[in-house]
């Protein structure tokens, strides 16, 4: 695979011009460029620069309304329902994350359920944002059906990404995981590099578990993380997102040809409500240190807390620039 080095400044400039070309406002274009670039800096190319051509394709198909923005439908104390009006998933998610943070600061906890929105790209973006504002967060989204329920053959559940973040002085803890063993974006990235998955990631067209990302993407059947446990968790998150937002379920999303009009939940908790910040920090560090102190399975390996490797990747790419797939970069430049 051919790669080229791109600085964060160059990527933001190129993407900002691109989004302006597609009639986003200057502020919106710069925000979208910033988020896609930050995801790429953190090593999540699959939902950063690699996802841009798909985003533009969805705009061209009319699945994303560039003039729309999320609006509040109803309020029940510290819980609110919002409608994304089929606007940009990133812009809607940012707005709802910030609203959940505001509700948490005012009430100790805040929840915003969002319906009729689009792909939020990297879910971790919003977990990091909440942590930077001193909030714990629990966020999730449903998706198009892209996994078989455990024991089934057809795709009936989504890989419904889950994000949980905890603020911490020495580096925030941020879990960002799809409920498939590997996200389809990750499989695309490995396929571009002609690499196999380290573990089985789904079924091929012959109903055999496979490490070949292309075979899995062609079959469209990803493997639930934790097998039956991931299958159950996927269904529960879909139920919660659908009920709380009064929006579309994975079933309803799957009736369309493309993944659009999703349901999402943004919950934030302000830990400063308990007035024991030092105790909280010590407890977090105790758990992390206990994990770090464990002997590795193989010499030279180590264990990490969620988000730790993201921080090291971020520092490296900020300093040295990002290695971007040349084919994807050329696609973006041609757009």
Q: How does this structure look, described?
A:
It is a single chain. By secondary structure, this protein is an alpha+beta fold. Strand 8 and strand 9 form a beta hairpin. The protein has twelve helices and 14 strands. The chain folds into two domains: 89 residues, Hypothetical Oxidoreductase Yiak, Chain: A, domain 1; 191 residues, Ribosomal Protein S8, Chain: A, domain 1. It is globular. The strands form four sheets. The protein has a seven-stranded mixed sheet, with helices on both faces. It is 43% helix and 19% strand. The longest helix is centred in the first third of the chain and has 19 residues. GO terms for molecular function: oxidoreductase activity. Keywords: Oxidoreductase. This is 3-dehydro-L-gulonate 2-dehydrogenase.
Please write out the topology.
Blueprint: E1 3-6, H1 8-21, H2 26-41, H3 52-60, E2 71-76, E3 79-83, H4 89-107, E4 109-117, H5 124-132, E5 136-141, E6 147-148, E7 155-157, E8 162-166, E9 173-177, H6 184-192, E10 202-203, E11 209-210, H7 213-219, E12 221-222, H8 228-245, H9 250-254, E13 262-269, H10 277-292, H11 308-320, E14 322-325, H12 326-334
Parallel strand pairs: 3-4
Antiparallel strand pairs: 1-14, 2-3, 4-13, 5-8, 5-13, 6-7, 8-9, 10-11, 10-12
Helix pairs in contact: 1-2, 6-7
